[in-house]
Design a protein that fits this description.
The chain is of the alpha/beta class and 375 residues long. It is 37% helix and 17% strand. The protein folds into two domains: 99 residues, Enolase-like, N-terminal domain (Enolase-like, domain 1, 2-Layer Sandwich), CATH 3.30.390.10; 246 residues, TIM Barrel (Alpha-Beta Barrel). The chain has eleven helices and 15 strands. Strands 4, 5, 6, 7, 8, 9, 10, 11, 13 and 14 form a ten-stranded mixed beta sheet that branches. α6 links the parallel β6 and β7. α4 packs parallel to α5. The protein is globular, with a radius of gyration of 20 Å.
Length: 375
Amino acid sequence: MHEGSTLVVTELEVLPVRVSQRTVWLMVRLHTNKGLTGLGEASLGSATQLDELDTFFRLVEGYSPFDIQQFRMRAWAKAVDGGIRAQTAMSAIEQALWDLLGKALAVPVHVLMGGTLRAEIALYANINRMTLDRSPDGFARNARRVIDAGFAIIKAAPFDGFPARSAGVATAQRATDRGIDCLLAMREAVGDEVAIRVDCHSHFDFARAVDVARRLKPAALDWYEEPIAPTDAVTTAWINASIPQRMAGGELLFGVAGFAPLCRPGVVDVIMPDVMHCGGLLEGRHIAALAASEGVSVSPHNACGPVATAAAAQFAAGIEKFDSLELQWGEVAWRADITEPPEHVRDGTLAVPTGPGIGIELNDAVVRAHLASVR
C-alpha cells in the first residue's frame, strides 16, 4: 500500500466489446477513491478475458496513479516471464495509469511526455479484418472503398491462412500465387499514387520471402512486413538486403530489449511498437528514442479499438521519426460512437486528442450494447 497519497487506485473493470467472431476489444478501466477513472486496452484477437489483468492490477491497487515508474519496476519481470498475455495485461494497466495521471493534472498525456511534434496523426487503413471475401476482387473492392474515404495508405494480409509446410509444395505455391494476385489487384484498383503495404504474418522462409517480394515488384509496395518472425533479426536483415521494398516489423515485441536487434543497421526500415503489447506508453517512447538514434522510422502497430488508438495517438504525437499510425478500418459502423468524444478520422488523419489523459471516455451505452459473453 502506498502511504500518504490522497488519490489511489481501487478497482479494475474489464469490458469485452464484441466486434466480430475474430475481434474483441478488451477495454480496461481503473477506478479510484476520488471518482476519476483511467482507460487502457488489452485486446488479443477474440479473447474475452485476460486473467493476467488481475495479477497486474494487484500491483497498483491502493497505489497512486502517479507511481507509474514504481509499477513498471514491480511488473517488469512478471511481464517478461509471462509472454504476450502478461505483456499485454501490463501494458493495459500502464496506459490506464497515464490516463489517470493526465486527468488528475488536467492535461493530455502527450504534454506529460514532453509535448507534441504534430497536431494530426497520419493514418494507414488496415483492411484485413473487414475483407471477408478473400479473393483478389474482394481485396480490390475494399481498397477502393478506403481511397474513397480519403486514405492514401492501405495495408492488407492476403497470405493469412497460409498452409503448413506439411501441406506440400503445390498447395503452398497456390497460396503464394493467390496472395500475390490479391496485392496486384489492389494496385490496379487504386492506381499508382496510393501506398500499399503487406503484412505477411511470418508465414515464409527466407527463399519464399525473397521470391514473393521480387514477384511483387509490379505492385510497388510501400513496405513488406514480417515475412518471417521478427525475432530472427539476422535472416530479416538478409531478406532486407535482397528485396526492393522497405522492411517493417515488430508488432508483438516487448520492451527496448525486444526491439534492439531490429534497430541495428540494415535489419528493418520501420519498427512497429504497439502500446498494447510493447510495455505501454513510456516504454514505447524509449523504443522510439532507440529507433531514432539508429535512423529507423516508427509506425505504431494498432490493429485494435478506439481506446488503444487514442493512447497510441498520444504516443505518436511526440515521436521524432514517426511514419504513420495503423487504423483497423471498416470492421463495424459504430466504432466511432463507442468513445466520447467520438473518434474522428478525416482524410486519413486523426487529430491528437487534447482532452485530459488520453483524451476520451467510453460511451457506456454503446459498450453495453456490444458486450461479449465471457468464456
